[in-house]
Amino acid sequence: LFDLVASASFVEGTAVAECQRLVDWLPVHPELVTWLESCWAPEEAQHGDVLRRCVEHVWPEFGWQRGFDAFRVADADLRAEAGFAETPGLEMLARSVTEVGSAVFYRALQEEAGEPHLKQIASRLRRDELRHYRHFQQFFRQFDAREAVGRKRIARTMWSRLRSDRHGRASLALRHVFAARPAGLGEAAPGATALEQSLAKQ
Q: What is the distance between the alpha carbons of residues 120 and 8, in angstroms, rounded to a whole number?
């Protein structure tokens, strides 16, 4: 549980930089840019802050900043290599796939947690991700009204983003979490109970 929460804090912590990367690539769309910069990126960054605080509280020796700094560089390279979807509309669709995946993760965390406050936090983050999903879907429909990309390209984009999220960023974050463990402690990370108690104090 600790490793998963720590890896989620890494991924969520890149939101502001990722927002800028996306805004720089998109065509002119004031409504979308305003929502990305004033809502999506700040809320995702807040998720990362909440998760970071609980990780550092329960295991102060864990090298969060060192691990995150290394992850941020590797993640930027990974995203630059992957690029964006074929069209702005398909990119909005791909983003909605990512938001659903995050919602599923937080739903699982909510169900597995035994501490009520941890359940509440996971539930709130899940609701945020679902709201983000609905916004990305809205913008996808706006773009698709002009792009009309067709079902095959839609399916290909969704499958590609699923593979990228699961086998790319998620595994990369976990590798950097493992690398940030204090030397000599091996696999000795705090258990679920300690993590839940920490979250209850947030």
A: 17
Q: Which residues contact 25 (CB under 8 A, 6 or more apart)?
A: 84, 91
Residue among 46, 67, 76 at smallest CA distance from 168: 76
Confidence of residue 193 (pLDDT cuts 50, 70, 90): very low
Give the residue among 80, 85, 50, 63 at the shortest CA–CA distance from 200: 50
Q: What is the mean pLDDT of residues 164-177?
A: 85
Report the C-alpha gap between 40 and 131 in whole angstroms.
10
CA–CA dist 94, 6 (Å, integer): 24
Q: Which residue has the higher pLDDT, 184 or 126?
A: 126
Picking from 32, 156, 43, 176, the residue whose alpha carbon sits closest to that of residue 106 is: 43
Under 8 Å between Cβ of 30 and 17:
no
